[in-house]
Amino acid sequence: MNGSPVLWCKDLRKRFKERLAVDGVGFEVAPGETYGLLGPNGAGKTTTISMICGLLRRDGGEVTVAGASLGHDPGQVKAAIGYVPQDVALYPDLSGLENLRFWGRMYGLAGRDLAERVEATLEVVGLTERAGDKVGDYSGGMQRRLNIAAGMLHRPRLLVLDEPTAGVDPQSRNAILSNVEALGGQGIAVLYTTHYMEEAERLCDRVGIIDQGRLIAEGTRRELVARVGERDRIELAATGDLAALAAAAARLEGVDEASVVAGGVRLVARDGRRLLPRLLEAAEHAGAEVTSVELAEPDLEAVFLHLTGKALRD
Questions:
Q1: Which residues have a Cβ under 8 Å from the Cβ of 191 and sit 6 or more positions away?
Q2: Superfamily for 7-226?
């Protein structure tokens, strides 16, 4: 990671009566990085970020944001965070513009600075043309996009997004994800919770997998896949000498298995994308013609299943 972390937390713990909801969670997020907390509903994601944001009292652990300690300078920490909760925190009888002006004043913005920030955030979330409409008339996806705008108004060092696409239609979901993708380029550290594997793979520079209140693994997608030994699967549809093709492929560095199947050759390999040019060259030398290639890379769902013994949405 580049530079000092915007968010650093260590050994976070929270118990609700007999249930240990968060058990020793710790991680950090750098400027411009999107860090995903990936886990099923009830894994402890929302409890963790609620403690980070100072909304829930910690039973243990430490949090610093932008160099300030939550224990010693809670006001400074909260001022550096933009929090976007699962539930939409907007006034339905006010317009989008009025909502943002209200929340901007809550952040201490005023005058030209407030007007410029409202205009800029409306443009980021694609709601400029609907700014004068009542929020109650917005679709669920539009309300969630305005919710994100409210969290961004004061130029936070850390933007915390808790399941921001829950319950929205595919078009709005894609718009929200595109908005989040753009934030890293602005240098904002983003903490993103989700139980959707595809969102974590699309958005997150690094992912922390959380289950039953514990952070059981973290890293880039490729690092997590390598950690559990998952490999790429390649299907080569081919004609000609398939046995020679399988034998030639098996000799390539990075290929762990190669076998002839109906209509082609099936491979298990590491970093399959880099192997493809050499596989095609090997096919030519082996007297086989490849007609199509199908590459299946392991995903975070496979990693989660390997680490926990259950599917992500069980």
A1: 7, 29, 35, 37, 49, 52, 158, 159, 160, 161
A2: P-loop containing nucleotide triphosphate hydrolases (3.40.50.300)
